Amino acid sequence: MSYNSFIYLFVFLVVAWLLWAFAPQKWRPGVLLGASLVFYFASTKRYIVYILLAAAIAWGVGLLLGRMDELLAETRPALPAADRKPFKKKVAVLKKMAVTGGVAAMVGILLFVKYLPFGARVLSQLMEALPGSPVFTVPALVQPMGLSFFTLMAVSYMVDVYRGSCKPASHYWQVLLFLSFWPHVVEGPFDRYGALSPALLDPPRPDYRNLTFGIQRIVWGLFKKMVIADRANMYVKAVFDDWTQYSGAATALGVLLYTLQLYAEFSGCMDMVCGSAELFGVPLAENFRQPFFSASVGEFWRRWHITLGAWLREYVFQPLILSKPMQRFARLCRDKVSPAAARQWPVWAGLGITWALIGLWHGAGWLYLLYGLYYFALQWLGELAEPALLRILPALPAWRKTRPYRLWQVLRTFVLVNFGMLIFRANGVHAALDMLRALAVPYQGSLLIKVDARDMAVLAAGALLLFGVDWLHHRGHRLRAELAMRPLALRWAVYIGAVLSVMIFGAYGDNYDPAAFIYAQF
Amino acid sequence: MKACIKHILHVAAFLLVLSVAVFLAGHYLMPHSNRYLSGYTAGGILGEDFDTIDVLIMGDSNAAQGISPMQWYCDSGVTGYTYGSGWLSVYNIYYRLRSIYEEQSPKVVVLCTGVVYSKMSDETELQAAIGDITDELIPLVRFHDNWKDLTFANLLEEHDYSWRDTNKGFTPVTTVGASMRGDYMYDDGVRAPIPLLVRLYMERIVRLCEDHDSQLLLITVPASASWNLARHNGIQSFADEYGLTYLDFNMADLNPGIDWKTDTPDGGAHLNVLGAQKLTTALGSYLTEHYSLEDHRGQPGFESWDRDMATYTDTITQAAAQNREAAEYQLSVLEQSAS
What we know:
By secondary structure, chain A is an all-alpha fold. Chain A has helices at residues 6-22, 28-44, 48-75, 81-127, 147-163, 172-180, 182-185, 193-201, 208-241, 248-279, 297-303, 306-321, 324-336, 339-362, 366-392, 396-399, 403-425, 429-438, 453-474, 479-484, 488-505. In chain A, helix 1 runs antiparallel to helix 2. The model of chain A has no long low-confidence stretch (mean pLDDT 91). Chain B is α/β, with parallel strands linked by helices. Chain B starts with a helix and ends with a helix. The mean pLDDT of chain B is 93. Classes of the chains: A mainly alpha, B alpha/beta. The interface between A and B is medium-sized, with 19 and 22 residues.
């Protein structure tokens, strides 16, 4: 059930909202859970067992951790002073074992289903060098919807309970609702149990403002997906699937349109899911904050897919650089190289691993690894080049405070991100290299590939509107709230105009080939 | 409570205004000519004079390329129209038939059953049903892409739905692409069940025809690429249940003599002119034998049909000659490849 399908918007959401709104307050979480399970089952059928299992493991581990904390709190004061510390240490070890086991189970499920065939392929390729070595082939398993999202959210739940930053859920259904909540189970965002559970488990009463604001956000998401992303897809698909036929401006436009497509689609999907959750008074985490106004790729990734970056920072990067092997590595750098290297190199090693994981999270393949490492290389080279740049251009710090320089930085980041998008969308590493080379070869044909001039006009107008709205948000405007203060006639004109725009200019029907949600495949 | 009622009224008023806007936009985006209302030349039926069509054929592209009603008029004066369009579904057909009944009173409605199983592979039954029904109920959804044809000049132009098709919905295809599948109606002992929602709309079509005193005849156009005995059995079972006559021209006893080496343009998915002539003759004979259909030739009110007859004869003669040439070439290629 796609978020932009008729069934989801006009059947599922309407029925779920009515049941939720008219249910007694104490039953509302149950309605949300029922709706989530119906949504998940309708899309995945028997593979629902994965999420049931993940929730059971996470709940069990959380419960165990909670019991151990209780045990510590109850038993420790009664113990003789000499026994208190060893007892605390023993409980800490047991807690660590429990959380490690839970995390290993989640990561194991993810690795087994998503990465095992890729791992076997890599192993075979490595073994090819040895004569008579066996060839490993593992058939690709069916990946249940949202696997990469709910397993990582389950990890965050267990680790948060372990760290004491959230209380363990007392009932299995509470964790199941958190993991399977339909607005975030397909494409995220990566929510935290501590932040989401108050609204999920004790939802606010139906609210007219939540209802209208939620619908408005869904319509805006539909506009991005159906008018911009699905229209751009026609051009993008032609250029990327048949990359040898195109070069120069055609390839460059294909890359630009893919960037536009991915942004409109992913952020549009987030608008739809956040709007859906808002109808029920549940505030999901924001995944985008005007990423194309970023001055560096680092800033770009703090504004693009925010919750994935935050998750990796909190649950991978930070534990990694604080880990014992990394501390040993830092000592080694200090002893053998320099104190500066001891500060920098472990951080870069941690970042390299984190970026590789960001790449691989998107898919099991070399191309995705390259995609992650591309951003790592950009950040690393940027840092390395900084001292040299400052020597060549002593006025650089002063320039950096000027508007033209900021504009240059934004443009530079945009171009670098587009190269990343080329790698991300290309049909393999060779195709990506071919396309990079093709950018330098002039293109003689028409740029209207699979689209006509009117489609291009709609794309241009849609992009202007998208970035215009982003700009207003960037400047601190709260558009829905501001619009709500305007006269009725103006508000209704805007709302009706928005709905008609989606219905008229949406790329649906016989003449179009809309793409499935890209991030739903990860 | 007061605030709640105010909000409900507010939402109701907004939905009302939105509905008016959607239907107005749909009206302006409808094609200016009935020529472009549907695929092939199905929309031409709206250009026909009221109550002049005695036999109405409803179906998909198989019908549009396979049944030529003007041939019946030439042979026996029976007036017919093929309302056929690519990927037309049972849901589409129900609503289109309902609107055709506003202008025509056909004595016989021939439903081509290829549409029963012709769902696009990437859709679920429910998605296909909702998509097609929405298309029919909200014109803006069906014609939304026509904004590309709007200009300041034609924006306020009145719709002209008087265009008539001299071929009466039939689209002659003169190319040949042999089908080498051999026997495709072998007995595998199974029955392809009609999907639930499709069945529901089939039942609605049956009732609609009864309400308008039309006799409903189920037929299947020969199509070696998409038809089989399981599907035949599924339709036969439905026909038996509702007491309907079902003619499957894929079955050996009704085969109008289709030669799959020469009578199809695309490997057995559709018929070309040579195949259509055979099927039209066979179906025409059945209709004239089993239904009391009037000979309208020379009658007042049918002058345009008499004029169309001459144009049609020229068109079909040329098309058949072209098709025969293509068939001879195809046969020679097959012979060469066999030797």
